[in-house]
């Protein structure tokens, strides 16, 4: 199952969205009965504090509760992880989630524009296997036993997408041949590390970038369109990061006692990288398809 969303008008907040959609209450009632009250109170308070920064107004409370956000009603059917959806709501704030992702795409594009100007065509979500969300929840619980903050970041991943449709999300029939579809539906596979780029700067891991333009450098034209690309927007639990400016190609796991590697800008890197070595530390959340326009 996939969800394709292309807003007809520009909305600036979830309150605008709520006023535009008269059937909001009906659609929310149709969503699965998720027991959000069972979410650990202490963890919930920590998550809230990171967004509202001490504010306890109704708007802040509503913004981080996926069960009452109209833009999350469909996502509750796609993603079974309560922890993931709460972090996604924190990321979105009072913006509609797909608009926030588009805005994040443009604001994190850092490479020179001589390579072209990106224009987002659409944001798509694909139903992933329930095990992808379950293993992410389990890993988050594991991190919270030893850390106050699991250090979840929204990051980009560039990969090969073979789908040939320019007006809809990834084609489910191409699961066997399309890396993007495989990742969105089945999660990341550590055994595929280096399949697109044999040089592993920080060893055998799954690589992400805070900059959409860096992820673009690992993407390939989508289907038969030379100027159409897709990169993946993910939520990654980094835990405790080992920060370095040096290459460590021999790594198969992060240096003890860390959970990930952060490649900092230095004499070898022009743009940051993050690497995880466990596929349960990440959930591919959305695919952003965009067209590169030459100057």
Automatic annotation (TrEMBL):
Q: What is this protein called?
A: PARP catalytic domain-containing protein
* GO function term, MF aspect, one: NAD+ poly-ADP-ribosyltransferase activity
Query: Which species is listed as the source?
Result: Gigaspora rosea
Domain PARP catalytic, first and last residues per copy: 182-286
Q: Name one Pfam family in it.
A: PARP
């Amino acid at each position: 199952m996939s969800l394709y969303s292309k807003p007809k008008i520009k909305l600036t907040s979830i309150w605008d969205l709520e006023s535009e959609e008269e059937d909001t209450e009906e659609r929310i009632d149709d969503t699965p009965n998720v027991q959000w009250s069972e979410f650990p109170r202490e963890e919930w308070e920590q998550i809230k504090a990171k967004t509202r920064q001490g504010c306890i107004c109704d708007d802040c409370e509503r913004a981080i509760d996926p069960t009452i956000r109209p833009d999350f009603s469909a996502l509750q059917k796609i993603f079974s992880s309560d922890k993931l959806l709460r972090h996604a709501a924190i990321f979105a704030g009072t913006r509609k989630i797909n608009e926030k992702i588009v805005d994040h795409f443009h604001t994190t594009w850092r490479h020179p524009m001589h390579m072209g100007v990106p224009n987002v065509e659409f944001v798509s979500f694909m139903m992933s296997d329930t095990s992808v969300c379950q293993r992410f929840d389990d890993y988050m619980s594991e991190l919270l036993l030893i850390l106050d903050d699991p250090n979840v970041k929204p990051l980009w991943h560039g990969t090969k997408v073979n789908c040939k449709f320019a007006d809809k999300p990834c084609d489910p029939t191409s699961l066997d041949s399309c890396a993007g579809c495989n990742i969105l539906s089945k999660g990341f596979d550590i055994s595929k590390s280096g399949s697109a780029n044999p040089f592993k700067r920080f060893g055998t891991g799954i690589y992400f970038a805070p900059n959409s333009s860096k992820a673009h450098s690992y993407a390939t034209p989508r289907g038969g369109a030379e100027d159409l690309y897709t990169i993946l927007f993910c939520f990654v639990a980094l835990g405790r990061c080992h920060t370095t400016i040096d290459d460590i190609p021999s790594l198969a796991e992060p240096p003890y006692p860390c959970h990930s590697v952060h490649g900092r800008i230095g004499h070898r890197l022009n743009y940051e990288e993050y690497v995880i070595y466990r596929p349960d530390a990440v959930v591919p959340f959305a695919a952003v398809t965009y067209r590169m326009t030459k100057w």
